[in-house]
Amino acid sequence: MGGGGDRRNHARRRGLEFAAMLAAQISQISARARSNVIFVRYVLFAILAGLMNLLTQAIVFHMAPAPIIVGGLDRLGLRINSFDFVLAISILAGTGVGFIIKYVLDKRWIFFDDYDNPADEARKICLYGFFSVGMTFIFWGSEIAFLAIFGTSAAKYIGAVIGLVIGNFAKYLLDRAYTFKLRAETWN
Questions:
Q1: Measured in Å, how far apart are the chain's first and last C-alpha atoms?
Q2: pLDDT band at 21 (very low <50, low <70, confident <90, very high)
Q3: Which of 98, 51, 33, 165 is nearest to 173 (CA)?
Q4: Is 136 in contact with 170 (CB distance < 8 Å)?
Q5: How remote is the C-alpha of 139 from its chain's centroid?
Q6: 188 CA to centre of own chain
Q7: CA dihedral for 35, 38, 40, 42, sign (positive or negative)
Q8: Nearest to 188 by CA among 21, 49, 27
Q9: What is the tens place of the pLDDT at every residue in 23-68?
Q10: Contact (Cβ atoms closer than 8 angstroms) between residue 109 and residue 42
């Protein structure tokens, strides 16, 4: 009878080992699936923020009362072209809208970050903005470099896409490490 108990204990132990191995594999698949969901969300949020930026620019550009504002600035001695003024205002408005949308979506759906207190939120927004500016410089630098090296519009846009990919990935890593302090899933 002693041998049967040993075989049962051995079988039970092997069964538990198998269950633990299976649970570890499921956990890895689950972590990978979560990382994939985070990646897809991040890309979609970047596209959405970009589209909202462009839509805001178009709305502001076509609706801005430039002659009234520029006329007032002109009377103050500030010489400015109304087209340049409206273009600058539309870019500023679009950037602001895109920034706010991306920040809110990333905070909630990428980094799962809760509201802390006003000081911490201000720190997060400043860091997020600083990293966004850095990403923009990577994007512009890549776009301009490809145009300067290859001299074609196609190369310029290829450089832009490469710059966006590198810039967004670097920004994700920086936001994960510094802005939202490792609260997000990692990209495996």
A1: 50
A2: confident
A3: 165
A4: no
A5: 13
A6: 17
A7: negative
A8: 27
A9: 666 666 677 788 888 899 999 999 999 999 989 988 988 887 655 5
A10: no
C-alpha torsion angle, residues 45, 47, 51, 56 (rounded to 10): 40
- Residue 45 to residues 39, 49, 82, 149, 152: CA-CA distances in angstroms? 10, 6, 33, 31, 29
Contact 159, 147 (CB under 8 A): yes
Map residue 11 onto helix, strand or coil: helix
> Percentage of the chain with pLDDT > 90?
48
Tokens 């092997």 locate to: 14
CA dihedral 39, 45, 46, 52 (to 10 degrees): 170
pLDDT digits (tens, 9 = 90+) for 145-163: 999 999 998 999 999 899 9
pLDDT of amino acid 184: 46
CA distances to 16, 26, 122 from 22, rounded to whole Å, are: 10, 6, 44
The backbone torsions φ and ψ at residue 187, rounded to the nearest 5 degrees and listed phi first, read -85, 115
Helix and strand numbers, DSSP H then E, in the chain: 5, 0
Q: What is the pLDDT of residues 107-136, one digit of tens each?
A: 999 999 988 899 999 999 999 999 999 999
> Which amino acid belongs to residue 88?
A
